[in-house]
Every structure is written in structure tokens, then in C-alpha cells.
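Obj.: predict assembly geometry.
Materials: sequence records (below).
Method: joint structure prediction, all chains together.
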Amino acid sequence: MNAQSFVDMCRVLRVLNAIRERHFGISLTYEQLSKLTVAVLVDRLIARAQWPLVIAVCQHLRLPPEDGVNRVLGHWACQKIEELKQNRAAGRATTDSAKLADVICRKFREFPGVSYADVAQKAAECELNELATLLLENEPQIDRQVRMLLKLDQRQKALSRATESGDALLENEPQIDRQVRMLLKLDQRQKALSRATESGDPDLIYLVILKLKQAMDKAELNLMLRKFPDAFILYTQLLREEAPNHLLALYRQEDDFCNQALYHLDSAKAAGTFDVREKQNCLAEAEKSMSAVKEECYSQVLNDSIKLLKHQAQFEEQFGQPFTELSLRSTIVWLIEHGENGPAENLRKEFRVGDKQFWWWKIEALGKGGRWQELEAFAKAKKSPIGYLPFVEICVKYKQMSEWKKYLQKMSSHEHQVMANIKTGDLTNAANIAFQNNDDHLLNRVMSHCGPQNRGLSEQILTMKQELAKKSGK
Amino acid sequence: MTPSAGPTSADSLSAPSAQSSGRVTMSHMRDANRRMLFDFLRTFDGSKAIVWDGDLTKQFTLIAGFSELKEHGVARMFPLKAGQAAPQCDVEHVLYMTRTSTDRVRAIIDNVRGVRQDDRRRHHAVFVPDSSTLCRHKLKEAGVHERLESVKELAIRFYSTDADVATLLAPRSLPTLLTRADWSPLHEVALALDQLETVFGQATRVHYMGDWAKKTVELLGKKREQDAIARGHEQTTANQIPLIDDIIVIDRWIDPLTPLITQLTYEGLIDELFGIRYGTALFPKDRFFQKNQEKTSSSAAAAADNKTKKVALTSSDDLFTELRNLNFNAVGLTLSKHIKYLSEQTEERHKAITVRECKEFVKRLPELEVARDAAGLHTTIAELIKESTTSKSFLDTIQCEQEILNCLETERPMPYIEEAIAKGEPFIKVLRLICMHSLVSDGLKAKVLDQYRRELLQSYGHEYADTLVQVQRAGLIRERGEAGSRGIPLTYLSISRAGQTAAFPALNKAFRLLVSDVNEKSPNDASYVYSGYAPLTVRLCQYWLNPGWRSPAVADPMKRVPGATGVVQRATDIGPGRSVADGIKRSVLVFFIGGVTYAEISALRFLSSKDENYEFLIASTHILNGDSMLTSLNDE
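Observations (raw C-alpha cells):
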């Protein structure tokens, strides 16, 4: 059988007996209590200021702390504060705030989870800000504390307090979010911010930032945020979405050239091809930021891009083709593909295109344009800095069976010869060349291209590999 | 007998099946998520409609099916789109659900603004996993706050795609950390770990490696402290026997090199070539054997994506469980063994003489059919992969990677990279190689770096400059030596402290990252997943198992790892966790902040299979590969 209901009943009877004592004089029957509910009973005891009894009742009946002990203590502290206020108003001798804060805090320490912040708010309502602040320092939940401080608007004071005794405060107020919320309520902004950053909880920091944004002007806010790098970063995330212009101003103020450059590059992209002048302006701004951060490589390339845009505008008129979205490579490839070698050569010189790069581009362009004779002439004119494999590749790509043979003999390295033969589909020849040159690695490569239809060849290659292994073994 | 119990499973790398008793799996997390979701739905009396964004819908298929949502009163579902008014349907509650992200709030605002005056339904905004201050603020600012009955949060954080893997599906975490220096993702990870510990019990120890990991563990500590205070010092998880004894938190950025290298496991290659999302991948449909019934069902939806076939890649597919962790070079062999076994089994019908034997055979037919379909499916996928892996461009890339890793050229540009730039091969592919080159060479010589950047921008256009800047900020490309400290500042501090971080050759020597005699078919070392390269992260996990990070035997290599390291010992009322005595391995959760690759996951599974005492569970912010990592860095 479950003994729980028996235990519960005993507890209730014990309470009913206790309040019947002469000293308290509340005689209730069990039925009456059931009708009245325990909560109401607790309220009545609070109203009579029977503090020890009501706390005992709460604990004995195992009421959850937020409905029971913590609430009672809250009322107790509020009553104390009220007394202090009335005594002061009447000019009577009374304890000072510090002593009262001490009494309250000492009592509260016995009961973790009780909200210092709520009591501090009461103090604030009674215009006892000093007391409120003292209490608040004991509020363990930082977010409560911060919120309340912000409410109290004790910015300067809170700031110094927070920086002086940051950790000591933390020990007293365990629940950060309570602390911050309370600080905000108290309008102790900087302290709220400081607490929130300590907590490492981005959500709490955003809460403070949003509050501060409403209450302060931009310059003041920027100044305050600069002292808290973590909060500053979150602030920039917020601005990124809401006010990009303001963000740029902030980057300027902070001498953050890298982010300035990124901002301008982004604007250049957004400008699109519709407004070339605008695009150039953005690129010029980006270029400036890049040279400020000593990234000469980028600033050079960006400078080139601005110049290229000018040329491209001209080409657009000349050829009736959109150019401004093309890279230097695509521009040169288009020109050569369409037989415009002169302008292509000029671009190459102006933008100091590397020799190898240019050869690759030109081969691609000639292939694209089907200019096979020109390609042959190009191969003969000078020694290729990139070998002759690319020539074979481009011929294979455009299925020019008769063309690729012209370049096969030009190859000096066996590696390229093997590759070329793989490209043209002559796997047997590829395998033979690799074998003749004792290149096991290349044999593997040929092997990887063998499908089910080359079963004979793959067996041959295996024998070749074995022979090579024997040779190198000896 | 299931097919996986056949002869092919002899050299299988897969962990013991999830059903084996006592094994800790991510299904606990999934169950917890389901409870959370259903309890949440129950708080709304009566019928409900959910209006949610596409990504979230897909994510939730990992938690519950539509039929289950229906059982909990969800009558209708609509996609959440910006610019649309609240959908019309006869329900009591309309839930607008989206992930916690301010750019999705816009869509909710539009919907709620479109609620008609005479609308009697109650409307709620629901954010997964947190209803952040910013989201609430946006709703309030737009003035729709009053029209909403409530703004709620549904704290589902982990999504489990497999028995041993769960991620936060948060690919933005890495760029947020690296390009914005915004540490919020670390706080999200801390919250997720906290949730994990409420489900699995409080781990006895939390180990961390790297600066992000350190900060995350600190945040986790603060969170637990705060919760204890809020609860009035009563502890709820500390006196529950932990299912996970140890948690290891590792930064992706102590090892940014690994994701850049092409993964060579079956699953890794599928991800590299086709991309895996939410445990499924899309393949060209025409390559697959079509079943008759599939052909006839020509609804409008099927016609829409006629060209692709969606394949679920999870541990529920026995054959895939076996194949996924293999080096691709071993896949063909395993597949053919498997098919041989299947045909032998099918041949048994000829041996069935008695009625009883026939009955036995018929009973097994459906099972054989499933196995046959799986074999057909994976043979086709393997064929598709093979087409790519034998292409010149792929082979050249792999060769170039090998040359870079072996430090063949640290003073000049790699010829293949120059060629790839000039040919205009995919930008991200080229960038991957350049980043590798820079990381392995401990920064590039100024001349080389400039040549790469210049040629890249000439070839692809200045539109790519911002990506380069972000990649540079992340420390993936930089100038060698002291000069690296000028120019664009880095965001991940431990990488910028030049001299303190070990250059690749030193790390390689200390941890034996490059292994020359790797056996791809029956591996004896985790390096098989990259055909001869073991990721630093994997070696760290290996050393954690044996001999332990603080053992003097590995003191020297451990010193070379960039970033902070340490362990937090938790106070518990209970002694050590579950005993190892009854043959149950202890579970260790490894959390990768900033992403993990499929190949790394396979390597950790390999370590689990070889270890007698421990088994890894793997968690991460997301799963990535080199392409997705670099793309995300400049993906606003």
C-alpha cells in the first residue's frame, strides 16, 4: 500500500495543531483548510507577519520554494524595507540601508534560489536606490542583476562597481540571467552589459544591446560597447542586417580595413553589370582599404579590374557582346576565339599575364574557335612552356582525330606520351611506353582506365608490372 | 539470417549491430527528441496546422513521420514562405515553425500580418531550438506580437542520422566563428552538450582540445552552475548512472587540413561527388534499374524531379553499413563477394526437395529480395563513383594532394595547381589544393602566394576576391614567417601564433599522419580512409584510447598540437559508470566543433572496432567536406 497519503495527512494535522496554539489562535478544521487552500493560509500568516511559523509551515508541507519559502522571505524583506521607508519619512531613528541589506542578505543566504532582484525592485519602488543596489549585488542570477541595474540607471557607478569587483559580485549572485534582467530594470546599463558578457550567453547580451540601443544615442553606445569586445562583435552582427551603412562607419572608426574591403567588394557585386561606374567606384574603395591593410597583391589586382572594366565597356560597343561580367581569362579567350588577336595581345601585356597562363588560355580559345591551323602555327612558332599534352587534349576534346597526331611526336617526356595515349584511347600504346620507361606508377594509371572490355590488356599490364618488380629487385 | 551475417561480413568494419544488448546509441537522443516534440504538440488542445520552412521539414523527418504528427493532432502542413498570408484551413491552432534565425522571422511576420480580422484560430510562432531575444524583438518591432497567441521554443538540438552519429545540422557555425569572430556557435554547442547530458547522464570527465573546445567547456560549466542555482542546488543528472563516461570536445581548427583532402571511403566519396544531406543523396536517375511500379506512378511530383533518384544512406541498410567505411578500392571486392553469396543463396531453391525445405526457402524470399535490391543499388552507385575516380582530373587532383602532403614542393607553385587555374577548373577545387599547399608548407612564400592569388583572380574574376580574403582570415592560406603577421588579420588565434603551432612535417613525424604501407582492403591502421593519411583528429582519439593524453609516452607529440587542452572532472555521488566487466564497451562521445568528415567518422568506427574497452559515439555541429567548408566561408 502507498503510505504517502498517510504521511501527507499527518503533516496537515500537525500544521492545523500548530496554528491552533493560543499564540496564533487560528482554529481551522481539516474541511475548512481544504476549502480555504494552503496558499490562502500562507497568505494570512504572511499578513499577520508570523514569519517563523509561516516558514515552518511551508517547509513542513513541502511547498515548492517559489510558492512557499521564497515568497515568504520576499514579503518579509519587503516589510522590512517598508518599515525603513516609513521610519525615514517620519524622521524616526532607524537602521541604515547597509545594515538592513546585511540582515536581509544573511537571511537569504540560508535559502538559495530566492530572488534578491525582486526585493531590490521593491527597494527601488520605495526610492531606496542605495539599498536596492546593495541587495542587487547579492543577487546570484547575473541577468536579473543586470536588468535591474539598467533600470536604476546607475550607469557610471555600476560601471566602476562592476569592473572593480566583478568576480566578488558573481559569487553573491548565482543566477546570471536574473541579475542581468534586474540590472536592466535598474537601468544600470554598463553593469548589465558587463554581467551579460561575463555570462557568455549571446542571447542575454543581445537583450542588453537592444535595450541600450533604445536608450542611448549611437556614439554613446559605440563608446560603451568598445569596452566589451564580445558584445561589440554581436552588435556588428545586428547592424549587418539592420543598418549596413552604420556598420561601415563603425569599421572606419575602428580602422578595420579588412572588413571595409569586404564591405566594398560586396557592394561591387551588388552593383552588377547595370552600373559599371558604380562598380568601379566600389572596387576603388576596396582597393584603398586593401592598400591600407598592406595587401598589395589585392590592391594591384583590383586596380587591374577597374582598368579591365574600361576595356570591356569599349569591347561591348565594338562587338555588341556583354563583357563586363567576364574575367580577364574569359575576355582574352573570347577575343582569340573570334580572331581578335590584337586586343588580346594588348590585354596580355597590360595585365602582365604569365607566360604559361597565356599559353593555356590561347590553346583553349583556338580549340573553341575551331582554329586548328592557327593552333598548329602557334605550336611551331615557339617552344611551348607547358609541353604539348594540352594540344592533344584540346584536339581530343573537340574530336579532331587528324589533328592530335601532329603533336604526339613533339612530346619529349614519356609521362606526357603515356597521358596523351590514354587521352586518345590508345591504352595498349600507353602501357608499352610506360613499360619501356620502367614506370610502375604510370602503368597503374593506365590500368585504372581499363574496363571490362580491356581484360586482355589488363592481364598484359600485370605481367609488365611483375617484370618491372623483378628488374628493380635485381 | 540477414545478408550481413554472410561470409562478406568477416572483414566488415561496421560496429556491432545496434540491437546488441546494452549498447549506447543515439537512438536515446532520438527518443528524447520525440518525447519533446509530442509533449510540445500536446500543449495545444485540438487540431493544429504547421507552417514550417523547408529545411526544418526535412530535419524533422529524422525525428518523426507525418503519420505520427497526425496522431498528435497535426491536421495540415504548409511550407513557410515570405510574402504569403496565413494559410486557410479549419484548425484551432496554427504553428509557424522555423529554426532560430532572424532572416526566417520575416516569413512569419508576413504570414501573421495576413491573418484576417475574423480569424478565430490561435496563431503561435515556434522557434527551434531557442526563441531568441532577437527573434522576439523582430516580431515585436513588426507589430505582429499582439496577433500571436504565443511565442514558443522547441529545444530540439541534435539530429541523429545514424546509430552512432548525431549533429546539430548547423553548417553556419564554422563561418560564424572564423569570419566573424562571433563565438555564439560555441554557446549553442554548450547548450547541446548540456542537453545531451540530461539524456545520457552526466559524464564523469569532459576532455577538450583546442581553444574553441576550451571556451565551450567553460560555457557548459557556467550553464550547469546557473541551472543548479536556479533549481536550488538540487542535482538531477549527477545521480543518474551515466551512459557516456567521457566526452571529448575537439576543434575542427586544430586540424583544418583534413577536410581539404579528398575522402577515399565509399561514403566519403559519395559525399564528395554527390553530396549527402540529412542522410540521403541524389543520383542521376537514368542510371538505375527501374522497377515497374515506379514507372507507372507518374504523379506530378515524380515528374518534377524525374532526373534524380533519392537514396537513403543510413545504418538501416545492412549492405551500406558494411560498405560505407571501406576504402573505395575495397568496395568492388566486397560487392562481388556479396553478390556471389546472394546467388548461392538463390541457387538453394534447387536443393529444396521436401515441402518443409521449400517452405523455409519461400520464407526467406522477401529478405533475399531486399538484399538483391541493395546490391543492385550500390553496384550502380559504385559504378558512378568509379567513372569520376578514373577521370584525369580526379586522378591528377589525388596525385597533386599526395605530392603536397609529401612536401615535394614548398618553395614554388605546384604545376598542377597552375594548370588547373589556367584551365578554369572549378574554383573551389583549386582553392582546396592551394589551402592544402599553404597549410602543409607552413605558409607560402610571398612570391608564390601572390602568384596564386593573382592568377586566380585573373582567371575567375575579382568577384572571388572576398572568398580569398575570408579563407585568408581563417588561416587557410597565409604568407610564411613573420611577414604573415601583417596584412589580413586571422580570427582563430592559435593558428596565428606563428612558431607555436607545429608545421605539418613536425606534426606528421610526431603523430605518423602519413603512412606509406597502407592496406586498403583489410586495414590495420585508420589511415586507410585517406589511402595513407590519418587525420590528426583521429590520431588524437587513438592516443586518447591508448595510452591516454596525459601519458608521458605521448607527452612530446601532444605538446605540438595547437591550442589549449585539458580535462574537467565532474563530481558525482555515484562511483564510476557502468562496469566493463559484462562485455559492454564504455561509450565515449567525441564532439567536433566546426564539422567532421565522413572519412573521419569511418576512421573512428575503425578505432572502436579494434578497441576492447571503448566505443565512440560521434557528434558534431555538422558534417562537411572540403567543398562545403570553403563554400560556407563566403556564403552569406
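Conclusions so far: Chain A touches chain B through 65 residues (CB under 8 Å).
To do: check interface contacts against the pulldown list.
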